[in-house]
Amino acid sequence: MNAVAHPDARPDLHRPGVGAVLVSTWRVGTPERQRAAVDAIRTAWESRAWPDLGLLSYSVLAGTDGDTLLHYSQWTEEKAYEDFVRTYRDDRNAEIDAAVPDIERVELRRYGPVHRSTGRGTTSTGELPGVVVIVEADFGGEGGGAGAGVREEWVDHVFAALDEDAVTRPATGGISGQFHLSTDGTRVLNYAEWESERAHEDWLTDDAPLSEAWERVQHDPRLVGGRVRRYTPALSLSAGV
Predict the structure, then answer these.
(1) Is the distance from CB of 23 to CB of 189 less than 8 angstroms?
(2) CA atoms of 183 and 158, how far apart (whole Å)
């Protein structure tokens, strides 16, 4: 089986059978190098057989900062990823690096499948999402983890705040959000689709006072860091039938 690129460049975020999600970040430097790297990734993958049915999809998003690429892959289990690393990854990366030298591979994080999700699933016009917002929230505690139930409770607080927003401060451009918990116990990642970058900016800069629910989310004393980055879908691959 060969790799097949999806026309909408989006993974199926509710695909059955996902047991692990791997998310990594590369820095490439410029928008031109972003496009060249995406092209090189597509060439390297489409010219080879799909590595393993344990890999369900592999997607790449281009940062609106003109510098970064985000890689989001769905696996049946972490072992399938480890098998891929041992057998298939190096020759693909070597081809990509030859086409776009000096890529900085910043970070790889491991997550479970979607923990909770929200949203209407489509844009108000039926068009594809214009931007994906990646929200990362880091938690600390003894041993570096958040403690049992801490991240789950925080996600519940986010949903309570979103429920309040539906009445008082609706995110009219928000489409969906998928919350993942990292396997090391330290991070929550929200993969959120929005109609446009402007819609997300307008929601962030809304001057309505924060509700108590959002105050509880943003000022949770167990939070030790966080970041928000925006991306546009660039490539999504899966095994051909």
Answers:
(1) yes
(2) 20
240 Cβ partners below 8 Å, 6+ apart? 1, 2, 3, 4, 50
Per-residue DSSP letters for 64-118? TTSSEEEEEEEES-HHHHHHHHHHTHHHHHHHHHHHS---EEEEEEEE-S-SEEE
Tell me what percent of the residues of the chain surpass a pLDDT of 70: 91
Q: Which two tokens stand for residue 6?
A: 């999806």
Reduced DSSP (H G I as helix, E B as strand, rest coil) percent helix, strand, coil of the chain, to 5: 30, 35, 35
pLDDT band at 147 (very low <50, low <70, confident <90, very high): confident
Look up residue 2 and give its DSSP letter: B
Pairing of strands 104-111, 55-63: unpaired
DSSP 167: H
Asked if 6 contacts 238 with a C-beta cutoff of 8 angstroms, the reply is yes
Question: Could you give phi then psi for residue 93, rounded to 5 degrees?
Answer: -65, -35
Residue bearing the bigger pLDDT, 177 or 145: 177
C-alpha angle 7-25-90 in degrees, rounded to nearest 5: 85
pLDDT value at 145 more than 90:
no
Contact yes or no for 166/120 (Cβ under 8 A): no
pLDDT tens column, 10-48: 999 999 999 999 999 999 999 999 999 999 999 999 999
